[in-house]
């Protein structure tokens, strides 16, 4: 057997792996080097001082702002979308599917094209703040969240709800004790999708928050690339790692719920 093709493939894979790993290696080496100069090397002055600076002062406040915006947007979107998706799943409303897909098609418009009416609406109502960002992002994310949750509620066996109704359960008991627990994977997927979208949002927080103290990390990371013509590579690398950490942590916290299906869910005769 000719080993030359396998060796060539192994070399190609190693080359791709080096290219893929290099940016992460650069981040780690500069983040843990208090005298980083922006090149890929072993830390010459190892320490966690860059992370301390990234978590203090205005940078720490920006992380808090990002958490407030992302958690608030994800929670509000899921709550509103679930409340609207369940009736759409159970009630035969004329033109239901056309309405849902129409909302999705409208949402596929470039978000930058909606910034002007959103901004002036927020300005007139005094919502040029974090609450305004949360409301605007929730509205923008509702079409996809509504469609996903409606399709997910469709998979919940309606026989379970009918059996609970026969036993005397109210609508709120049926939804709270049967539909929502069985829909936990779908709720987790929509919550995670909305959280990451809000976490990475740049334009809306930049327009709504005029002061540096109101910026989230997405805007702060842009500002960290250069202030007064200088770049602090150690701070920038540490800030970038901290910026990526919450989304990764949320994924691992929700991974079990997002991977759970309806295997084993059924109705006994």
Topology, number of strands: 0
CATH superfamily: MetI-like
Largest sheet: none
Q: Helix amount, in percent?
A: over 70%
Radius of gyration: 24 Å
The CATH architecture designation is Orthogonal Bundle
The total of helices stands at: 12
Q: What percent of residues are in strands?
A: under 5%
CA-based shape: globular
The figure for the number of domains is: 1
What does this entry look like structurally?
This protein is mainly α and 269 residues long. The chain has one domain (49-258): MetI-like fold, CATH 1.10.3720.10. Helix content is 72%, strand content 0%. The longest helix has 34 residues, at 57-90. 27% of the residues are buried.
Brief overview:
By secondary structure, the chain is mainly α. It has helices at 4-31, 49-54, 57-90, 96-107, 115-124, 130-154, 158-166, 171-182, 184-200, 203-208, 217-224, 233-258. The chain has one domain (49-258): MetI-like (MetI-like fold, Orthogonal Bundle).
Secondary structure topology:
Blueprint: H1 4-31, H2 49-54, H3 57-90, H4 96-107, H5 115-124, H6 130-154, H7 158-166, H8 171-182, H9 184-200, H10 203-208, H11 217-224, H12 233-258
Helix pairs in contact: 1-12, 3-6, 3-9, 4-6, 6-9, 7-8, 9-12, 11-12
Keywords:
269 residues, mainly alpha, MetI-like fold, 12 helices, globular, disordered C terminus
């Amino acid at each position: 057997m000719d080993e030359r093709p396998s060796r060539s493939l192994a070399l190609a894979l190693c080359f791709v792996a080096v290219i893929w790993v290099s940016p992460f290696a650069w981040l780690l080496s500069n983040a843990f080097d208090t005298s980083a100069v922006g090149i890929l090397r072993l830390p010459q002055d190892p320490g966690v001082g860059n992370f301390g600076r990234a978590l203090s002062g205005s940078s720490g406040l920006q992380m808090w702002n990002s958490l407030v915006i992302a958690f608030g947007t994800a929670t509000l979107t899921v709550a509103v979308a679930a409340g609207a998706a369940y009736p759409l799943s159970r009630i035969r409303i004329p033109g239901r599917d056309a309405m849902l897909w129409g909302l999705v098609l409208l949402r596929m418009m470039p978000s930058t094209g909606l910034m002007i009416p959103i901004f002036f609406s927020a300005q007139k109502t005094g919502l040029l703040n974090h609450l305004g960002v949360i409301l605007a992002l929730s509205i923008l994310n509702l079409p996809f969240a509504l469609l996903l949750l409606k399709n997910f509620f469709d998979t919940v066996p309606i026989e379970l709800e009918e059996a609970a109704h026969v036993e005397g359960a109210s609508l709120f008991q049926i939804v709270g004790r049967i539909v929502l627990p069985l829909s936990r994977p779908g709720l987790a997927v929509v919550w995670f999708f909305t959280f990451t979208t809000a976490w990475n949002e740049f334009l809306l927080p930049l327009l709504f928050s005029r002061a540096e103290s109101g910026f989230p990390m997405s805007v702060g990371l842009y500002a960290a690339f250069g202030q007064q013509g200088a770049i602090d590579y150690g701070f920038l690398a540490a800030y970038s790692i901290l910026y990526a950490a919450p989304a990764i942590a949320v994924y691992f916290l929700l991974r079990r719920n997002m991977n759970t299906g309806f295997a084993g869910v059924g109705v006994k005769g």
